[in-house]
Amino acid sequence: ARADNASQEYYTALINVTVQEPGRGAPLTFRIDRGRYGLDSPKAEVRGQVLAPLPLHGVADHLGCDPQTRFFVPPNIKQWIALLQRGNCTFKEKISRAAFHNAVAVVIYNNKSKEEPVTMTHPGTGDIIAVMITELRGKDILSYLEKNISVQMTIAVGTRMPPKNFSRGSLVFVSISFIVLMIISSAWLIFYFIQKIRYTNARDRNQRRLGDAAKKAISKLTTRTVKKGDKETDPDFDHCAVCIESYKQNDVVRILPCKHVFHKSCVDPWLSEHCTCPMCKLNILKALGIVPNLPCTDNVAFDMERLTRTQAVNRRSALGDLAGDNSLGLEPLRTSGISPLPQDGELTPRTGEINIAVTR
After folding, report:
1. Which residues pair with 146 in a beta bridge?
2. What is the dihedral of CA 315, 318, 319, 320, to 10 degrees?
3. What is the pLDDT of residues 163-213, one digit of tens each?
4. What was the pLDDT predicted at 329?
5. Fold exhibited by the domain 10-161
């Protein structure tokens, strides 16, 4: 017999069984919910008395596969239902033999106790209704028939069950696809992390080279101590763009190749990290001829917090002095031009510089 296909839809059968035992007043009834209509069976309701095949040559015939299979149908019975066991021949042969003896339906019970009913295939059997039930329920009914107890059965259409969207083949395909995807993903991740490690190592090497080059460049830059009467002490002279403070006597200043002046303690941390002028972005490595082919680190926005953390105490003190002196005033902002560079093409053009002068 051919088993059902998991991709096919099927209909469940609701079966009510009524057993009328002699000498017992009320009939015994029970319900079978796990029946299943055959694929080629009409999906309709039917009612009739249940009959099993007659013995053949003195041996009980439960299969209905023998061409000599017969059923004893009492004259007063108009509709009857054949009860057969699965096995030994096709579902079509069993159903056709029952239909030949004018059964209105065939109930086939399974031959394995742990197996659920299947969707039987029986093309060409006509309008006879075919239903499969479990082995346990089938043998329960057969036990009453063997005792010559009348059994009535009503079969009704249950629920339409949609086809399952996967089979064993599709499950294997999905599993293989998942494994292949995992292999590809793992290979990509390994490649990604290798590239990331290589990039990180290369970046660290470049940063170390830049740091060494920046230290070498800083050591070559001009420094001097501001003295009384120097132009840096003039109130109109540009203030240090890092700490926004004026230059005082004995301050040590750093003069960059672009002629911009800063406090040494302010500009050195910037140059160590960025190797460019904070104002005009001049590359001091190129200006001094140190590692001309090695680019500076990102020309990021001026990081005031990082550059001035060493001057935080001085700034707070200066702001406190400003707040305590009502005679102080802020001059309007002014822009001053950029001093020419000693080498052409080494200065990024800029529109001007913003300076704040504090006067008393």
Report:
1. none
2. 120
3. 766 567 778 888 999 999 999 999 999 999 999 999 999 988 888 888 888
4. 39
5. Glucose Oxidase; domain 1 (3.50.30)
Show the beta-strand stretches assigned E in the chain: 10-20, 28-37, 46-51, 80-85, 105-109, 129-133, 150-161, 222-225, 252-255, 261-263, 329-330, 334-336, 353-355, 358-359
Going 81 to 86 to 92 to 94, the CA torsion angle's sign is negative
Nearest to residue 275, comparing CAs of 200, 204, 207? 207
Q: What pLDDT does residue 218 have?
A: 86
Residues 242-265 have pLDDT tens digits of 898 888 888 899 889 998 999 989
Which comes out higher in pLDDT, residue 152 or 214?
A: 152
Side chain identity at 131, as an amino acid letter? V
Beta bridge partners of 225: 252
**84, two tokens:** 């057969």
The encoded tokens of residue 112 equal 């394995």
Tokens representing 49 are 């008395």
Long-range CB contacts for residues 301-309, cutoff 8 Å, separation at least 24: 302/278, 306/269, 306/273, 307/242, 307/266, 307/269, 307/270, 307/278, 308/242, 308/243, 308/266
Residues 6+ apart with CB under 8 A from 58: none
* Three-state secondary structure call for residue 78: coil
Q: Which residue in 346, 217, 206 sits closest to 272, CA to CA?
A: 217
**pLDDT digit string, tens, across residues 5-50:** 555 788 999 999 999 888 777 889 999 988 999 999 999 999 999 9
Say what the pLDDT of residue 26 is: 85
Domain-wise residue ranges, the chain = 10-161, 203-359
d(CA 70, CA 60) in angstroms, rounded, equals 11
Question: Do 347 and 338 contact (CB within 8 A), yes or no?
Answer: yes
Q: Helices 264-274 and 168-220 meet at what angle, rounded to 10? A: 140
Chain segment 142-173, per-residue pLDDT in tens:
999 999 999 999 999 999 888 766 567 778 88
Q: In the CATH scheme, what architecture does the domain 203-359 have?
A: 2-Layer Sandwich (3.30)
